[in-house]
Amino acid sequence: MQATTQLIHSIPVDPLTGAISVPIYQTSTFVQDAPGVNKGYDYARSGNPTRATLESLVAQLEGGSTGVAFASGLAAIDAVIKLLQSGDEIIAVDDIYGGAFRLFEQVYRKFGITVNYVDTTNLETVFNALTPKTKLIWIETPTNPTLKITDIQGIAKIAKAHGCLLCVDNTFASPALQKPLSLGADLVIHSGTKYLGGHSDLIAGVVVAADPELGQKIKFLQNASGAILGPFDSWLLIRGIETLHLRIRQHCASAQAIAAFLEHHPAVDKVFYPGLATHPGHSIAAKQAKGFGGIVSFTLKNDTQAAATAFVTSTGLFKLAESLGGIKSLVSHPATMTHKSIPEEKRKSAGVSDSLIRLSAGLEDTEDLLDDLRQALDGLVKFNNSAVPAIAETEKAY
Fold this sequence. Notes:
By secondary structure, this protein is an alpha/beta fold. The protein has 2 domains: 3-242, Type I PLP-dependent aspartate aminotransferase-like (Major domain) (Aspartate Aminotransferase, domain 2, 3-Layer(aba) Sandwich); 245-397, Aspartate Aminotransferase, domain 1. The protein has 13 helices and 12 strands. The strands form 2 sheets. A 7-stranded mixed beta sheet has the order 1-7-6-5-4-2-3, sandwiched between helices. A 5-stranded mixed beta sheet has the order 8-9-12-11-10. Helix 6 (152-162) links the parallel strand 4 and strand 5.
């Protein structure tokens, strides 16, 4: 049975009513027959039938034993870090999501958990960064926003040999394209807000564990800390997942066409998309994933924040907004948006320059998206030409 068919028919029909849509159990508590005697649920923080269906569904999608749903992607990341203790160290990808960096540096560092940021595309670099205190390796692949590709299987072998956990942020690829647990990862996390939800109408996070015992530790932290996903958002996430595979096909097709177009535009300097044969991680991405994703990043030849701002404020179909993975195309400027919490020097050394722009290809017609980018880039050429005299006059004044 194909993955799409299996996914659709793994979502249960309600046994009580025959409802084909999972019911929303909008309740805070459950009546018990006697103290401690219930129908599987006692209090909604500890468990809810709608959320339980979602958690089972995502675990099945990722090929894991246990799925745990949280109120946001950062809450999911937070739960994984709580597996550690003071004195432990993390090796993390250098091109890391700004929210994860902020959590690591401004919250957990003061509790004695330190993070070493390295280029995880180089296995030797990761190996050399290991210390006896390393308890977790944290990777994104593709990374946000420069779309670096890490060999999951290679990192997994290093992690297992050293006795530490490997957690993969699979948000950009989604389980429709990539299944890190099958490649040796211990944990997978998602911002369910993105491709899993797919409609820009919810905030959610998910952790999936390969090992049942590890999964129960995450479940304990979910209940103990209380950052649960509510029943309505759980239902929305289930509904989004129902069309995941279909949406991902179109996201990937448009992104591939966009990357090819950008490669040849005179205003563009570098294009970051693993689907391009020129991408340094292309062969690894082709080996470990079924597709290359719906995100394309690029830098401008005019490598300034002003040029990037001119571009991101001149697109029509690509809406300037945080987030990605929705049905409507989005554009963002990571240096001043998603990655602004990262110090400038560290941000630039990881490849997030002032002119880097990130595109999330939606479900609009591909040709319409190309036309929108074309007009914005053509306008940028005029912007660059008009900016030269102004700069010259300023220099003359000094």
